[in-house]
């Protein structure tokens, strides 16, 4: 019975190491066990290189008194976004705010008066140079090949570094289990779980089915225009060539993909 | 070794403590779980044996392909094509999580957190 | 050597039990948070980091500051620090452990923490922070423990350790620089977006960390008959005050840049923190307390006569410690998030469970520190004869 503490500890260490290794090897061995012939994109999918959204502020204002903010409602019901009344814990993908809040650095008397009462729709800007993607320690948020800043909710550890990095306040965190706050559920789309960050995803799941984002579709005024900026002949390209559009905090160099037509 | 008697005693107590489940269930043959298969559909996307052994690998691959690589169609080994979606593809046939997923998962005490976000059909029904 | 932590006076055990009970309360609070979610804290959509990350940042500094006692001893062969280097190294171990715990309790999905290792993301500063912190922890454990073990055996530490000691010295500043980079590279957070963040972090770390060592050393002198050496304390207190003055200067430089340039976005956070905005001034008392403590600290530590007096030295170091803690704990995080990207104010106030968890983590750190210090002091004093007779220490 001459086992020394030192050798006992060594043995324990080896055992631990061995079991970790065997798990890893086991995982590696069964990695090729997915039988797929292959994966493809769905044939009806809308394909783009850089999706952008153009918001016609004037049209939006004109229709606002009658439309009942259908874009917000459509988005939030489709994506099972919980309705939390406490503004400290609230979750929103698309919402409206005033000019001063949307463009705080542009604020001066005349502009403020000019845009008094004009709603500005705010959502994730799907920046071309997104700081949130840069800081994510697990690549849970990433930029896909169509220019959408995606969220992989399976991977998010809830460190909220992306929320610190986003200069647009576009991200929300699930401080609690969101399910009790979802009144009517859409069974076709998941909810989120507590402890992950969420935001607008430019309806990537609808694009895959050949449909436009739901907010664009829901707007009775057609104030939201969605398209591929990389496509020279797209509608968004034509509009941006002709009319004055602003992007929020363009000076930060994140290259937002949401444009606001101001005239 | 000092205090051999005491040390050995407590080691034995510990071993017995940690193996309580074995002693409590000694000699009992628990019924092997019987997940309820869909009645209308006869064929899953891959063979039954494969699905039984590797569905978690497949699902893991699915979510990577669909979310991260934008590849949303799965071409099965018999060339049949399926849309990648847990809620809109798998659970359309396997329309009861409790009777299908949970029966085995509970038996082997594994708790995948799929259902923290994805909505099981029966949960969706109750919700409305 | 571990056995030395298992025997001790009644006072030692009361202290350990006290810490354990706080850890227990903190643990209960954490279970509550684990079950319900981070919503039990005062954090919000707009102020999405709070007390946990603030303490994490502060403690990274404390950990890095160990270099201020290790470097003179090993690099410049400054013998006077011989008795306190181990205090520095073990302080670093305790501080890094607390850092890791603070990051952990701040996660929304703690069960997925290993995703950071599964999906390495070298574009994220967090990736580098994980590397530098864990390596620093290992280096300090290795160096501190091996040197102490050699002393225990009555020999000199083995020569293979030397490269590790030097590496630990070079490594120390990196942990705080990387932590500063977490903040200073974010667009749109103007309070953080400044190149002086890293030097300011280092300066406040190199004052608050050694200040803590001074306080602990003075305490140990009282309760454990440990004499750090008069000369060592003098040098250490000089380090504290020089670094602290640098820190205050760096802070003033920031205020100069913000207010002389007149750039609105650079000023608003300072305005909110010190005088308040839009009827919100939640943190002004704390910021002014930090200012007052800084003045006291400079008075007590810059005047040689006061610095040499043990009572004023202790008070000055306490002032340094809390002043730095308030600047990082209250100011840094809240200032970065307020005003929000919409130029609105969302006040942040930590909740009771949040404070409970925070205290629990601190208590864990102090427990680790207590145990390591106990071992270190027992080893150190086992080679010398000290007698306390009628309140006076006699040493062989």
Spans of chain B of 5+ residues with little confidence (pLDDT < 50)? none
Largest interface (CB < 8 Å): A-C, 50 and 45 residues
Percent of residues in helices of chain B: 40-55%
Strand order of the largest sheet of chain A: 9-2-11-10
- Quaternary state of the chains: heterotrimer
What is the SS-derived class of chain A?
Answer: alpha+beta
Query: Between the first and last Cα atoms of chain A, what is the distance in angstroms?
Result: 89 Å
| Rg over alpha carbons of chain B | 22 Å
From the N-terminal CA to the C-terminal CA of chain B, the straight-line distance is: 67 Å
**Could you estimate the helical fraction of the residues of chain A in percent?**
25-40%
Range of strand content of chain B: under 5%
Write the H/E string of chain A, N to C: HEEHHEHHEHEEHEEHHEHEE
Overall description:
The complex is a heterotrimer of chains A (263), B (128) and C (396). Chain A has helices spanning 5-29, 57-67, 70-78, 99-102, 109-114, 131-135, 161-165, 204-207, 214-218, 235-242; strands at 38-40, 51-56, 94-97, 120-123, 141-143, 149-151, 172-173, 197-198, 224-228, 245-246, 258-261. By secondary structure, chain A is an alpha+beta fold. A four-stranded mixed sheet of chain A has the order 9-2-11-10. In chain A, strands 3-4 form a two-stranded antiparallel sheet. The relative contact order of chain A is 0.21. The mean pLDDT of chain A is 91. Chain B has six helices and two strands. Chain B has helices spanning 4-18, 20-24, 48-68, 86-93, 97-107, 121-127, and strands at residues 73-75, 81-83. A two-stranded antiparallel ribbon of chain B has the order 1-2. The longest helix of chain B has 21 residues, at 48-68. With 396 residues, chain C is mostly helical. Chain C has one domain (2-233, 349-395): Up-down Bundle (Formate dehydrogenase/DMSO reductase fold). Chain C has 14 helices and two strands; from the N terminus they run H-H-H-H-H-H-H-H-H-H-H-H-H-H-E-E. The longest helix of chain C has 32 residues, at 230-261. The two termini of chain C are 24 Å apart. Chains in contact: A-B, A-C. Chains A and C meet through helix 4, helix 6, helix 7 and strand 7 of A and helix 5 and helix 6 of C.
């Amino acid at each position: 019975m001459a086992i020394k503490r030192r050798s006992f500890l060594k043995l324990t260490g080896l055992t631990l190491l061995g079991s970790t290794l065997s798990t890893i090897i086991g995982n590696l061995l069964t990695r090729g066990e997915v039988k797929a012939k292959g994966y493809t994109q769905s044939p009806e999918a809308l394909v783009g290189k850089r999706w952008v959204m153009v918001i016609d502020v004037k049209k939006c204002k004109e229709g606002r008194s009658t439309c009942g903010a259908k874009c917000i409602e459509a988005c939030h019901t489709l994506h099972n976004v919980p309705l939390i009344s406490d503004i400290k814990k609230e979750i929103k993908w698309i919402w409206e705010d005033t000019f001063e809040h949307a463009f705080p650095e542009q604020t001066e008397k005349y502009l403020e008066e000019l845009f008094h009462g004009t709603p500005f729709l705010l959502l994730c800007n799907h920046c071309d140079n997104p700081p949130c993607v840069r800081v994510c320690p697990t690549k849970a948020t990433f930029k896909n090949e169509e220019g959408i800043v995606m969220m992989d909710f399976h991977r998010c550890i809830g460190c909220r570094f992306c929320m610190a990095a986003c200069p647009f306040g576009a991200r929300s965190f699930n401080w609690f289990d969101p399910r009790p706050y979802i009144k009517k559920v859409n069974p076709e789309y998941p909810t989120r779980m507590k402890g992950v960050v969420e935001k607008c995803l430019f309806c990537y799941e609808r694009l895959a089915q050949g449909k436009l984002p739901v907010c664009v579709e829901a707007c009775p005024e057609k104030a939201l225009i969605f398209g591929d900026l990389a496509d020279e002949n797209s509608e968004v390209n034509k509009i941006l060539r002709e009319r004055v559009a602003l992007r929020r905090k363009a000076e930060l160099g994140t290259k937002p993909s949401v444009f606001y037509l101001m005239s | 070794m000092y205090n051999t008697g005491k040390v050995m005693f407590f080691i034995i107590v510990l071993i017995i403590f940690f193996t309580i489940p074995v002693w409590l269930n000694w000699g009992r043959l628990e019924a092997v779980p019987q997940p309820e298969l869909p009645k209308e559909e006869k064929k899953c996307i891959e063979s039954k044996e494969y699905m039984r052994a590797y569905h978690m690998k497949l699902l893991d691959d699915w979510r990577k392909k669909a979310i991260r690589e934008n590849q949303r169609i799965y071409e099965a080994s018999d060339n049949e094509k399926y849309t990648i979606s847990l809620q809109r593809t798998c659970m359309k046939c396997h329309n009861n999580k409790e009777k299908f997923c949970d029966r085995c998962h509970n038996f082997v005490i594994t708790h995948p957190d799929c259902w923290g976000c994805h909505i099981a059909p029966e949960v969706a029904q109750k919700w409305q | 050597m571990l056995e030395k932590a298992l025997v001790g006076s009644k006072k030692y055990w009361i202290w350990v039990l006290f810490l354990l009970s706080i850890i227990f309360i903190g643990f209960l609070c954490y279970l509550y948070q684990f079950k319900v979610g981070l919503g039990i804290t005062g954090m919000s959509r707009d102020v999405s980091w709070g007390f946990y990350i603030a303490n994490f940042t502060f403690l990274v500094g404390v950990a890095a500051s160990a270099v201020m006692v290790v470097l003179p001893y090993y690099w410049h062969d400054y013998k006077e620090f011989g008795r306190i280097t181990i205090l520095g190294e073990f302080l670093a171990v305790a501080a890094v452990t607390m850092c890791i715990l603070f990051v952990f309790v701040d996660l929304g999905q703690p069960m997925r923490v290993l995703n950071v290792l599964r999906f390495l993301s070298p574009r994220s500063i967090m990736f580098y922070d994980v590397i530098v912190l864990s390596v620093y922890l290992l280096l300090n454990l290795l160096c501190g423990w091996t040197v102490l073990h050699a002393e225990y055996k009555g020999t000199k530490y083995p020569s293979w350790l030397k490269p590790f000691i030097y590496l630990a010295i070079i490594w120390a500043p990196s942990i705080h620089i990387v932590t500063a980079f977490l903040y200073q590279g974010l667009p749109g957070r103007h309070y953080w977006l400044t190149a002086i963040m890293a030097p300011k972090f280092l300066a406040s770390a190199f004052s608050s960390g050694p200040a803590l060592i001074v306080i602990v050393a003075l305490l140990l002198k009282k309760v454990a008959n440990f004499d750090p050496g008069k000369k060592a304390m003098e040098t250490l207190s000089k380090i504290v005050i020089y670094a602290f003055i640098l820190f205050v200067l760096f802070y003033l430089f920031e205020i100069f840049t913000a207010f002389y340039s007149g750039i609105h976005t650079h000023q608003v956070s300072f305005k909110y923190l010190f005088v308040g905005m839009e009827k919100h001034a939640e943190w002004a008392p704390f910021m002014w307390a930090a200012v007052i403590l800084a003045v006291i600290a400079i008075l007590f530590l810059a005047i040689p006569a006061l610095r040499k007096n043990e009572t004023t030295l202790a008070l000055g170091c306490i002032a340094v410690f809390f002043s730095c803690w308030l600047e990082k704990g209250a100011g840094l995080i809240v200032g970065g998030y307020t005003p929000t990207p919409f130029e609105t104010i969302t006040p942040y106030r930590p909740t009771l469970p949040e404070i409970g968890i925070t205290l629990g983590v601190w208590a864990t750190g102090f427990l680790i520190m207590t145990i390591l210090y106990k071992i270190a002091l027992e080893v150190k004093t086992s080679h010398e004869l000290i007698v306390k007779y009628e309140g006076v220490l006699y040493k062989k």
